[in-house]
């Protein structure tokens, strides 16, 4: 197998072999909607073979240092092939080429961090001798792999979010059965090829493509899967949790991220960062800024700056070096966003900028005069739309941010240390970003939400904790 070029047909990656199926599925170029490649469609027998192979592979020795070497080598290969991967991302996601390169650079870092963590997995001494009657005992814990991990990933960041699953899972000594999003599967298949070249033992990584709901169901039915790690929509996440039984489940789900701009903030900086972080990847980022709350004294000047900066963003062909915003993942998704904006306008919102659609391209859109119950505020837009509302008091805005089913990350621009500390105590999120927008992430930080945004943390160190079991060893001396 080589990399994506138009017309290519991809197989499933099972037990180190590429297997093409009779039924194939189209992968579209998201900018021109042309068929660019075909992927294989896994059936139940393929799912079971992949899980069985993963279960066998986990029994073979694979030392922490060997895991470190494989992951470091994979990171190096990814850096060398950055351009090739980025071109594929631009095609299959519609992600602008400069942003695509950024994703590949981050993914390589995620693999490096995972490699480093492979050498640091450790337990602790437990002073059991402190208990009466246990004077002659000693104890310590070790962390052991959970076994076979099913990793199910979304379309929007298909290289780095796959690396956030396979990196820590392999570093911890597990096997992985990966099910990438059906609309953006090619990069995951290329990653499997790269892992093999980096020396990953056969069977440690299996990749299944095809119908997400069917493969998901067969994975859930297979009792040899020990853990599910899922990134995607709350609807599917909740379903997986309901069917996984007593097995481990880690969920990274959606958000309708809020960012506060207080009247003492650097408004220029806030407007620049919010303009950038509301519209990256056409707003299809789980921590993308969706709700902005601006202190009412500075509303007019903030909106003027935000418009000025957003107007400069170039919408168009993701392969073009000058493009800032490419197409959404499907024309239907752009139509949904258009209908939500139109509905908000009917309910009293004003379009300060944008609001127009051309196929899958939706212009970066700023809404004002919104209320918290409009879909564009209450639900996850997952598109290039930001809604700006005002507030008077600190308690009021904290309550507004918290009036959400979600809680992944939030942003706060302020120079008031007391406010920043109050917000860090009271805002219900997995991460609060002070003097930046909600969409800040580096790959070694703990990352994950509360409420309907999920549970469990990613970032290799934290994911490894989820992907291992703590076992206590007690010595009776
Ligand atoms: N919190 C995070 O880190 C994070 C990161 C990226 C995306 N997301 C969220 O992902 C969503 C967008 O991604 P999406 O549209 O690809 O999500 P999605 O839930 O539609 O799909 C995610 C994955 O689940 C698979 N799937 C679909 N039905 C399934 C089923 N019944 N059982 C098992 N798997 C099934 C899909 O094929 C895909 O691989 C947004 O809500 C976004 O916020 C969250
Ligand atoms: O879509 C959500 C992603 O987790 C954000 S990031 O690409 O990891 O920064």
TrEMBL record:
Enzyme Commission numbers on file: 1.2.1.97
GO molecular function: lactaldehyde dehydrogenase (NAD+) activity
Record keywords: Oxidoreductase
Reaction catalysis annotation: (2S)-3-sulfolactaldehyde + NAD(+) + H2O = (2S)-3-sulfolactate + NADH + 2 H(+)
Gene3D superfamilies per the UniProt record, alphabetical: Aldehyde Dehydrogenase, Chain A, domain 1 (3.40.605.10), Aldehyde Dehydrogenase, Chain A, domain 2 (3.40.309.10)
Domain of life from the UniProt record: Bacteria
Domain Aldehyde dehydrogenase: 21-471
Family assignment from sequence similarity: Belongs to the aldehyde dehydrogenase family.
Function: Part of the sulfo-TAL (or sulfo-SFT) pathway, a D-sulfoquinovose degradation pathway that produces sulfolactate (SL). Catalyzes the oxidation of 3-sulfolactaldehyde (SLA) to sulfolactate (SL).
Protein name per its UniProtKB record: 3-sulfolactaldehyde dehydrogenase
Source organism of this protein record: Metabacillus litoralis
């Amino acid at each position: 197998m080589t990399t994506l070029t138009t017309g290519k047909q991809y197989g499933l990656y099972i037990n180190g072999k590429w297997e093409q199926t009779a039924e194939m599925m189209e992968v579209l170029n998201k900018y021109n909607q042309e068929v660019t490649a075909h992927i294989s469609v896994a059936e139940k027998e393929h799912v079971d073979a992949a899980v069985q192979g993963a279960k066998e592979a986990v029994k073979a020795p694979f030392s922490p240092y060997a895991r470190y070497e494989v992951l470091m080598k994979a990171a190096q290969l990814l850096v060398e092939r950055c351009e090739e991967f980025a071109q594929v991302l631009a095609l299959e996601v519609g992600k602008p080429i400069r942003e695509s390169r950024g994703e590949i650079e981050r993914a390589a870092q995620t693999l490096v961090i995972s490699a480093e963590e492979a050498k640091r997995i450790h337990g602790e001494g437990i002073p059991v001798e402190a208990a009466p009657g246990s004077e002659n005992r000693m104890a310590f814990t070790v962390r052991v792999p959970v076994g076979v991990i099913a990793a199910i990933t979304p379309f929007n960041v298909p290289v780095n979010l796959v690396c956030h699953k396979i990196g820590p899972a392999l570093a911890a000594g597990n096997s992985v059965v990966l099910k990438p999003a059906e609309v953006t599967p090619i990069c995951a298949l290329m990653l499997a090829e790269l892992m093999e070249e980096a020396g990953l033992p056969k069977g440690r990584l299996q990749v299944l493509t095809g119908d997400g709901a069917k493969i998901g169901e067969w994975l859930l039915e297979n009792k040899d899967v020990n853990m599910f790690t899922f990134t995607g929509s709350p609807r599917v996440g909740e379903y997986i949790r309901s069917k996984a039984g007593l097995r481990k489940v880690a969920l990274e789900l959606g958000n309708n991220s809020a960012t506060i701009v207080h009247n003492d903030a650097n408004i220029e900086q806030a407007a620049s960062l919010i303009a950038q972080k509301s519209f990256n990847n056409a707003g299809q980022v789980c921590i993308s800024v969706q709700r902005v709350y601006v202190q009412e004294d500075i509303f007019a000047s903030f909106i003027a700056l935000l418009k000025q900066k957003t107007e400069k963003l170039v919408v168009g062909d993701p392969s073009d070096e000058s493009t800032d915003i490419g197409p959404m993942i499907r024309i239907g998704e752009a139509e949904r966003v258009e209908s939500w904006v139109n509905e908000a306008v009917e309910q009293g919102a004003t379009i300060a900028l944008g609001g127009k659609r051309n196929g899958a391209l939706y212009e970066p859109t700023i809404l004002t005069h919104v209320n918290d119950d409009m879909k564009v505020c209450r639900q996850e837009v997952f598109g290039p739309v930001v809604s700006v509302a005002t507030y008077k008091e600190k308690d009021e805005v904290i309550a507004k941010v918290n009036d959400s089913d979600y809680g992944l990350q939030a942003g706060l621009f302020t120079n008031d240390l007391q406010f920043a500390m109050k917000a860090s105590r009271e805002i219900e999120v997995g991460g609060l970003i002070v003097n930046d927008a909600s969409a800040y992430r580096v790959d070694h930080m703990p990352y994950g939400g509360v409420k309907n945004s999920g549970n469990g943390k990613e970032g290799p160190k934290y994911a490894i904790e989820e992907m291992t079991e703590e076992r206590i060893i007690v010595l009776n001396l």
